[in-house]
Write a structure and sequence with these properties.
Layout lengths: L1 H30 L2 H16 L4 H10 L4 H17 L3 H24 L20 H16 L5 H21 L5 H24 L3 E3 L5 H32 L8 H27 L3 E3 L10 H9 L7
Antiparallel strand pairs: 1-2
Helix pairs in contact: 1-8, 2-10, 3-7, 4-5, 4-6, 5-6, 5-8, 6-7, 6-8, 7-10, 8-10, 9-10
């Protein structure tokens, strides 16, 4: 039991520190370098080129799902699931993680710095790092994954990823956000998820778990493989699309390739979040009260053979 908690704590610590480090790297490269700003402004310009198209209309409809009432409803749903399972500490920590991710995103947006390094061309002056919509959608997925029963965790990740990645890609398609904004949002959410799991290990709320059937275990491994594969292929596809987009402007396909690169980066970020959560919580159940420690037979015998307590 202690060995399992130690292993999970190490995973949570490594994943959490990695999220913080990657957040700093992404922010520095995308916001404080000329190539980063040039690429992301090109993505915004490519998204503006499809304004009024059916795909952008669909993106706007998706983004319309993220409102204050729906965000509050998502938080209540996460707490309710945890409470119905009688895991109140888990439910509370999951809600705190969701709120912390949203607040962190808002603070970075408000007080972060975005210098204008490009002297010509398309420029946007808005503070958009990280994406608030992507943070809310990914936080809902993360919260539900944390409180869901172990046997339903795979299904929760699959459904949550469809929603979270859909919102992330929609922010790029609608020209609301740059690709780095979605990546930063997912890193913040996963970082808070790692912190939640680390705290639970300190309260001894982590237990080994396994699906009871071979089919269930096979499906869980297949899901993790597919999600990780989607993340790798998305980032690889984005790299190829960037190379195509950097061709001379008169060649056809540069604008679609640029937009595709931005979408693939958003898709890769969402898939990476799902893969990270599956790896973090691999073969463990979280949130259950610690098991009572049974006394050894010798100590129990000593207590029974000791002097009788006074009943006065």
């Amino acid at each position: 039991m202690r060995g399992e908690s130690s292993s999970v704590w190490q995973r949570a610590s490594i994943f959490g520190v990695t999220c913080v480090a990657l957040l700093i790297v992404v922010y520095a490269l995308a916001v404080f370098t000329v190539p980063g700003q040039r690429f992301e402004d090109a993505v915004l310009r490519a998204a503006d080129a499809v304004a009024g198209s059916p795909e952008q209309a669909a993106a706007l409809n998706t983004l319309g799902l993220i409102t204050v009432p729906t965000a509050v409803a998502g938080v209540l749903l996460v707490f309710l699931v945890g409470a119905l399972r009688r895991r109140f500490l888990l439910a509370t920590l999951a809600v705190v993680a969701m709120a912390g991710a949203v607040v962190t995103t808002e603070l970075i947006q408000r007080y972060g710095i975005r210098p204008i390094l490009l002297q010509h061309g398309h420029r946007r002056y808005d503070q958009s790092f990280p994406s608030g919509h992507t943070t809310v959608a990914t936080a809902l997925m993360c919260g539900l994954v944390l409180v869901a029963p172990y046997r339903f965790r795979g299904l929760t990740v699959a459904l949550g990823l469809l929603f979270a990645t859909g919102v992330g890609v929609a922010t790029v398609t609608a020209s609301w956000h740059r690709p780095s904004d979605t990546i930063g949002a997912t890193l913040i959410v996963v970082g808070y998820g790692c912190a939640t799991v680390a705290v639970l290990t300190k309260f001894r709320r982590v237990r080994p778990a396994a699906l009871p059937t071979v089919l269930g275990r096979t499906l869980r491994v297949s899901l993790a493989t597919v999600v990780a594969g989607v993340a790798v292929l998305s980032f690889a596809g984005a790299a190829v699309a960037v190379v195509i987009a950097l061709r001379p402007a008169h060649e056809s396909g540069s604008v679609p390739a640029t937009l595709a690169a931005g979408r693939l980066l958003a898709l890769g970020a969402g898939a990476s979040a799902g893969a990270a959560l599956l790896a973090l919580l691999r073969r463990v159940d979280i949130g259950a009260p610690p098991e009572p420690v049974n006394p050894s037979p010798s100590s129990a015998g000593r207590r029974r053979s000791g002097p009788a307590r006074s009943t006065r």
